[in-house]
Design brief:
Layout: H1 2-29, H2 55-69, H3 77-103, H4 111-130, E1 136-138, E2 145-147, H5 152-170, H6 176-193, H7 199-217, H8 226-243, H9 247-253, H10 255-273, H11 285-290, H12 295-317
Antiparallel strand pairs: 1-2
Helix pairs in contact: 1-2, 1-7, 2-3, 2-7, 2-8, 3-4, 3-8, 4-5, 5-8, 5-10, 6-7, 6-8, 6-12, 8-9, 9-12
Length: 319
């Protein structure tokens, strides 16, 4: 097991580091570039034209590496569900990115179309999982088990849709989403060590691939993951939480994406009810920028806060 973890991590890291430059050139050749909304901050207007869909590389790489180093992963139903969630939500993001790249605007898939696709995937994962998994949640600290039966499907739908969209909202600054995702994956890597032989190497490979991507995504970013990468990361976090039975702990471990989502929800609710904003700008990381904090400082701050949430979530999950 330790050898497979190291191999997957190192090989995935090296592959992404080596192949990303030509992949960026390929994306530029296809004109798959970022378009910036007219409502974006002034500093972000400079990022127009940066290649998107960099997430393709950190999705494909750990899967291919796993195929060669740990073929048994494709026969394990839990690990297979995790991989399908990774690819499935990445595909939704790819369609969205493709429409954005072709239309040269930021609309892409409609929210309704995204939700329908996410719901279809949730149904597929629920059907695959219910055949052998436990349709229950374990309450942290108390250890009490709640048997949900078919209601577990609605939890699955909420988890996958919520997690994928939350990570997508976090993808707004150079290095922010990749760093937060790496930190959130580490507790799940440790948790999965005692539960599965095939899942930990896959997670280790993803962390390595994300580190390689982060090298090119740090400020000034040479490539963005796009919805392709962000939705895939949200999907795989939800899937890992489901198969490891740490559904509730996910809320804490993914603290920063949760906060980003809550900031948007609260902002919209405030505007519609009291006709005023609670925050200067949402998702909330932009508010720090408007208050004068440099982008790098905001990213480092959010990484540190996410590390605290990841630690708290890990302690919660193991009690």
């Amino acid at each position: 097991m330790p050898l497979k973890l190291i191999l997957n991590f190192v090989i995935s890291l090296v592959i992404v580091l080596v192949t990303m430059p030509p992949f960026i050139k390929f994306l530029k050749k296809l004109s798959f570039r970022q378009t910036i909304s007219e409502y974006s901050l002034d500093d972000d207007q400079k990022k127009a034209g940066t290649p998107i869909m960099g997430g393709i590389l950190f999705i494909v790489t750990p899967l291919i590496v796993t195929l060669f180093t740990n073929i048994k992963a494709f026969a394990d139903i839990d690990t297979l569900i995790v991989m399908l969630a990774f690819v499935g939500y990445g595909l939704i993001g790819f369609i969205d990115d493709y429409l954005i790249a072709v239309k040269k605007n930021n609309e892409g898939l409609s929210p309704k179309a995204k939700l329908i696709m996410q719901a279809v995937l949730a149904v597929i994962f629920f059907v695959l999982y219910q055949g052998h998994g436990r349709l229950e949640i374990v309450l942290p600290l108390s250890g009490k088990v709640l048997h949900l039966g078919f209601l577990y499907f609605f939890l699955v739908l909420f988890m996958f849709a919520g997690s994928s969209n939350a990570v997508n909202l976090t993808d707004g600054m150079d290095g922010l989403c990749a760093g937060v995702s790496i930190i959130a994956l580490i507790p799940f890597l440790i948790i999965s060590l005692g539960m599965s032989e095939t899942l930990p190497p896959l997670i280790a490979g993803l962390i390595g691939a994300l580190l390689g991507y982060l090298y090119y995504n740090k400020k000034p970013a040479k490539v963005f993951m796009g919805d392709t990468g962000a939705l895939a990361l949200g999907g795989i976090l939800a899937a890992i939480a489901m198969v490891t039975k740490k559904e509730i702990a996910l809320i804490v471990i993914a603290g920063i994406p949760v906060i980003e989502t809550l900031s948007v929800i609260l902002q919209v609710a405030a505007v519609k009810t009291i006709h005023r904003r609670i925050f200067p700008y949402t998702p909330i990381h932009y508010s720090f920028r408007l208050k004068g904090m440099p982008e790098k400082s905001v990213v480092y701050l959010f990484w540190m806060v996410e590390a605290v949430f990841a630690l708290l979530g890990f302690l919660l999950a193991t009690r």
